[in-house]
Design brief:
The protein is of the alpha+beta class and 204 residues long. The chain is 46% helix and 17% strand.
Protein backbone atom coordinates (compact mmCIF):
# COMPACT_ATOMS: atom_id res chain seq x y z
CA UNK A 1 0.00 0.00 0.00
CA UNK A 2 1.48 3.36 -1.02
CA UNK A 3 1.35 6.50 1.07
CA UNK A 4 -0.72 8.21 -1.64
CA UNK A 5 -3.52 5.67 -1.18
CA UNK A 6 -3.82 6.14 2.57
CA UNK A 7 -5.80 9.39 2.49
CA UNK A 8 -8.20 7.95 -0.08
CA UNK A 9 -9.03 4.91 2.04
CA UNK A 10 -9.28 7.04 5.19
CA UNK A 11 -12.10 9.16 3.73
CA UNK A 12 -14.40 6.23 3.14
CA UNK A 13 -15.10 5.29 6.79
CA UNK A 14 -15.37 8.96 7.79
CA UNK A 15 -18.10 9.52 5.22
CA UNK A 16 -19.99 6.46 6.40
CA UNK A 17 -19.76 7.50 10.03
CA UNK A 18 -20.98 10.99 9.18
CA UNK A 19 -23.95 9.37 7.53
CA UNK A 20 -24.72 7.40 10.70
CA UNK A 21 -24.16 10.40 12.95
CA UNK A 22 -21.20 12.28 14.34
CA UNK A 23 -22.12 11.24 17.86
CA UNK A 24 -21.71 7.54 17.05
CA UNK A 25 -18.45 8.19 15.19
CA UNK A 26 -16.84 10.14 18.00
CA UNK A 27 -17.99 7.59 20.56
CA UNK A 28 -15.99 4.96 18.69
CA UNK A 29 -12.96 7.23 18.24
CA UNK A 30 -12.77 8.35 21.85
CA UNK A 31 -13.52 4.85 23.15
CA UNK A 32 -14.53 5.49 26.75
CA UNK A 33 -17.60 7.58 25.90
CA UNK A 34 -20.86 5.71 26.03
CA UNK A 35 -22.82 5.84 22.77
CA UNK A 36 -26.09 6.82 24.37
CA UNK A 37 -24.63 9.59 26.51
CA UNK A 38 -22.71 10.95 23.50
CA UNK A 39 -25.87 11.20 21.37
CA UNK A 40 -27.84 12.79 24.20
CA UNK A 41 -25.06 15.27 24.82
CA UNK A 42 -24.95 16.35 21.18
CA UNK A 43 -28.74 16.46 20.79
CA UNK A 44 -29.36 18.47 23.94
CA UNK A 45 -26.25 20.58 23.33
CA UNK A 46 -27.47 21.64 19.91
CA UNK A 47 -30.96 22.30 21.21
CA UNK A 48 -29.69 24.49 24.05
CA UNK A 49 -27.39 26.45 21.75
CA UNK A 50 -30.25 27.09 19.34
CA UNK A 51 -33.01 27.81 21.86
CA UNK A 52 -31.00 29.02 24.86
CA UNK A 53 -33.39 27.35 27.32
CA UNK A 54 -34.38 24.10 29.01
CA UNK A 55 -35.85 21.05 27.40
CA UNK A 56 -39.16 19.69 28.67
CA UNK A 57 -37.39 16.83 30.45
CA UNK A 58 -34.88 19.18 32.08
CA UNK A 59 -37.69 21.48 33.22
CA UNK A 60 -39.52 18.51 34.68
CA UNK A 61 -36.50 17.40 36.69
CA UNK A 62 -35.85 20.94 37.92
CA UNK A 63 -39.46 21.19 39.10
CA UNK A 64 -39.19 17.77 40.72
CA UNK A 65 -36.04 18.72 42.62
CA UNK A 66 -37.58 22.01 43.77
CA UNK A 67 -40.72 20.18 44.92
CA UNK A 68 -38.74 17.59 46.88
CA UNK A 69 -36.55 20.18 48.60
CA UNK A 70 -39.58 22.35 49.36
CA UNK A 71 -41.41 19.41 50.94
CA UNK A 72 -38.37 18.49 53.03
CA UNK A 73 -37.87 22.08 54.13
CA UNK A 74 -41.53 22.58 55.10
CA UNK A 75 -41.52 19.31 57.01
CA UNK A 76 -38.39 20.31 58.89
CA UNK A 77 -39.80 23.75 59.69
CA UNK A 78 -43.02 22.19 60.98
CA UNK A 79 -41.06 19.78 63.16
CA UNK A 80 -38.92 22.58 64.61
CA UNK A 81 -42.01 24.66 65.39
CA UNK A 82 -43.70 21.74 67.13
CA UNK A 83 -40.62 21.03 69.22
CA UNK A 84 -40.33 24.72 70.13
CA UNK A 85 -43.94 24.76 71.35
CA UNK A 86 -43.34 21.57 73.32
CA UNK A 87 -40.30 23.12 74.99
CA UNK A 88 -42.43 26.12 75.98
CA UNK A 89 -45.10 23.79 77.38
CA UNK A 90 -42.59 22.04 79.63
CA UNK A 91 -41.21 25.41 80.71
CA UNK A 92 -44.76 26.55 81.56
CA UNK A 93 -45.33 23.40 83.58
CA UNK A 94 -42.10 23.91 85.48
CA UNK A 95 -43.19 27.44 86.35
CA UNK A 96 -46.63 26.28 87.51
CA UNK A 97 -45.14 23.41 89.51
CA UNK A 98 -42.86 25.79 91.39
CA UNK A 99 -45.80 28.12 92.12
CA UNK A 100 -47.98 25.26 93.35
CA UNK A 101 -45.25 23.96 95.64
CA UNK A 102 -44.78 27.44 97.06
CA UNK A 103 -48.53 27.73 97.61
CA UNK A 104 -48.65 24.33 99.34
CA UNK A 105 -45.71 25.25 101.53
CA UNK A 106 -47.49 28.29 102.95
CA UNK A 107 -51.10 27.06 102.80
CA UNK A 108 -50.58 23.41 103.74
CA UNK A 109 -52.51 22.14 100.69
CA UNK A 110 -52.73 22.57 96.97
CA UNK A 111 -55.32 25.03 95.60
CA UNK A 112 -58.79 23.63 94.85
CA UNK A 113 -60.10 23.27 91.32
CA UNK A 114 -61.59 20.71 88.92
CA UNK A 115 -61.00 20.75 85.16
CA UNK A 116 -59.93 24.35 85.49
CA UNK A 117 -58.47 25.82 82.30
CA UNK A 118 -55.25 27.51 83.34
CA UNK A 119 -54.82 30.88 81.67
CA UNK A 120 -58.56 31.35 81.18
CA UNK A 121 -60.50 34.27 82.63
CA UNK A 122 -61.16 32.32 85.84
CA UNK A 123 -57.53 31.28 86.33
CA UNK A 124 -55.34 34.20 85.35
CA UNK A 125 -53.09 33.99 88.38
CA UNK A 126 -52.35 32.09 91.60
CA UNK A 127 -52.45 33.95 94.89
CA UNK A 128 -53.21 33.10 98.52
CA UNK A 129 -56.85 32.32 97.58
CA UNK A 130 -55.94 29.90 94.80
CA UNK A 131 -56.55 30.28 91.08
CA UNK A 132 -58.16 33.69 90.52
CA UNK A 133 -59.02 36.16 87.79
CA UNK A 134 -57.68 39.25 89.58
CA UNK A 135 -54.70 38.52 91.84
CA UNK A 136 -53.76 40.18 95.10
CA UNK A 137 -50.86 39.89 97.51
CA UNK A 138 -49.33 37.54 98.43
CA UNK A 139 -48.80 36.20 94.90
CA UNK A 140 -47.38 32.86 93.83
CA UNK A 141 -47.92 33.19 90.07
CA UNK A 142 -48.64 36.61 88.63
CA UNK A 143 -49.62 35.48 85.12
CA UNK A 144 -50.74 31.94 84.51
CA UNK A 145 -49.33 30.55 81.24
CA UNK A 146 -51.49 28.99 78.57
CA UNK A 147 -50.91 26.49 75.80
CA UNK A 148 -49.20 28.12 72.75
CA UNK A 149 -51.94 26.90 70.40
CA UNK A 150 -54.98 26.32 72.57
CA UNK A 151 -55.70 29.17 74.96
CA UNK A 152 -59.43 29.10 74.21
CA UNK A 153 -59.71 25.36 73.50
CA UNK A 154 -61.45 22.81 75.74
CA UNK A 155 -59.35 21.52 78.63
CA UNK A 156 -57.07 18.54 78.12
CA UNK A 157 -58.49 15.17 79.15
CA UNK A 158 -57.19 11.63 78.85
CA UNK A 159 -56.99 10.37 75.27
CA UNK A 160 -57.08 13.76 73.54
CA UNK A 161 -54.99 13.58 70.35
CA UNK A 162 -54.65 17.28 69.57
CA UNK A 163 -53.41 20.43 71.32
CA UNK A 164 -55.67 21.44 74.20
CA UNK A 165 -55.67 23.93 77.06
CA UNK A 166 -53.81 23.23 80.30
CA UNK A 167 -56.27 21.55 82.66
CA UNK A 168 -55.85 21.67 86.45
CA UNK A 169 -57.59 19.29 88.85
CA UNK A 170 -57.17 18.93 92.60
CA UNK A 171 -57.84 15.35 93.72
CA UNK A 172 -56.96 16.00 97.36
CA UNK A 173 -55.17 18.50 99.52
CA UNK A 174 -51.89 16.67 98.87
CA UNK A 175 -52.31 15.93 95.18
CA UNK A 176 -53.02 17.72 91.93
CA UNK A 177 -52.88 17.06 88.19
CA UNK A 178 -52.21 19.34 85.23
CA UNK A 179 -53.01 17.72 81.91
CA UNK A 180 -51.31 18.94 78.73
CA UNK A 181 -50.57 17.81 75.19
CA UNK A 182 -47.25 17.52 73.33
CA UNK A 183 -47.26 17.78 69.54
CA UNK A 184 -43.91 16.16 68.83
CA UNK A 185 -42.33 15.23 72.11
CA UNK A 186 -39.18 16.49 73.81
CA UNK A 187 -37.07 14.96 76.60
CA UNK A 188 -38.02 13.64 79.06
CA UNK A 189 -41.30 13.00 77.17
CA UNK A 190 -40.14 11.81 73.78
CA UNK A 191 -43.50 10.91 72.18
CA UNK A 192 -46.51 13.06 71.26
CA UNK A 193 -49.69 12.67 73.26
CA UNK A 194 -51.51 13.71 76.41
CA UNK A 195 -49.62 13.74 79.72
CA UNK A 196 -50.18 14.99 83.23
CA UNK A 197 -47.96 16.72 85.74
CA UNK A 198 -48.34 15.68 89.38
CA UNK A 199 -46.35 16.41 92.55
CA UNK A 200 -44.47 13.19 91.79
CA UNK A 201 -43.53 14.10 88.19
CA UNK A 202 -44.88 13.42 84.72
CA UNK A 203 -47.31 10.59 84.01
CA UNK A 204 -49.20 9.42 80.88
Amino acid sequence: MSKSQFPIKLKIPITNFEHWGLGFYWSLVIGYWDFKSQIEKRIFGKWIRKNNGFTLIESFFVMLIITVFTSLTLGLIQKVRQEARDVKRLADLGQMRAALELYAHFKGAYPPGKYLVIGSDAAQALDHRGWVAIPEEPLYLLQAPFDPLSKNSPPCVRGVEQPCAYSYANASSTDYSIRFYLEHGVPPLSAPGTYQLTPHGYRP
